[in-house]
Amino acid sequence: MPPLTPKPPGRGLRSVGLVVPGVRRITAQIAPYTHWWSDQNQTALTADGPLLAVIGDSTAIGIGASEPGRGYVGLLRDALDRRDGYRPVATDGGPSGPRWRVINLAQSGARVADAIDRQEPILSMLAATPTATPTVVICTIGTNDVVWSAETTLLRERLRTLGSRLPAGALLSLVAGGSPRAVLANRAIKEIAAAGDHRLIDPWREPGPPPRERLASDRFHPNDLGYRLMTRPFARALGAPAPAGAVTRQTGTDR
């Protein structure tokens, strides 16, 4: 299993970080959060239990959250553990389900080309290994392509290539934003999900507080609340409980 390596921030992000302290603080999370997940991946290879494999970008490694495990991937793993009856300490002496393992192939700043060239080949290698065949596959990528590039034709072609290589039943996420480029990318993702028998997930439009309350100090990545809300549609798709503490505007209470 190759180790995850931090991808240096692009020139645009570095320039913004020079004048916006919040961007600088969140960018500083990239290296430690990447190394944390790299260690988790190595542990998962030698552990037992069902396996969640993730293709993605910075949101998959939890950039913006207070800890890497409080991004949507860590929260979803906890939700799957609760669904399946895993208990860290079986105080009542009863049986405990196995803990879910996670192999997170994501990289901050990753684009769809990165997923095709590096992440998906590792996923295919895992699928060919009996002890590491993923039980669930999640793919959340494409937002960086939309934000940092004006090109859409090649992006849609790359999305189709990636979608054709994912196993049937993968959870395929829409990209964030409402720009014309995002609309075109999401239209392609919807078509890809239908053609590949993938499950379409929209983690960006969960009801709740306004965006300013969901975002980290860089005003781009989710904060802890944002990630709890982002986890909810993934958990619903897998029949798992919603992460605790997600406040919705409809009720105003923790759930």
Properties at a glance:
255 residues, alpha/beta, 5-stranded parallel sheet
Write up this protein.
The protein is an alpha/beta fold and 255 residues long. 45% of the residues lie in helices and 8% in strands. It has ten helices and five strands, in the order H-H-H-E-H-E-H-E-H-H-E-H-E-H-H. It has helices spanning 11-19, 21-27, 30-46, 72-83, 112-127, 143-148, 153-165, 180-195, 211-214, 224-237, and strands at 51-56, 101-104, 136-140, 171-173, 199-201. Strands 2-1-3-4-5 form a five-stranded parallel β-sheet, with helices on both faces. The chain is globular and about 55 Å long. The chain starts with 10 loop residues before the first helix and ends in an 18-residue tail after the last helix.
Summarize the structure.
With 255 residues, this protein is α/β, with parallel strands linked by helices. It has helices at residues 11-19, 21-27, 30-46, 72-83, 112-127, 143-148, 153-165, 180-195, 211-214, 224-237; strands at 51-56, 101-104, 136-140, 171-173, 199-201.
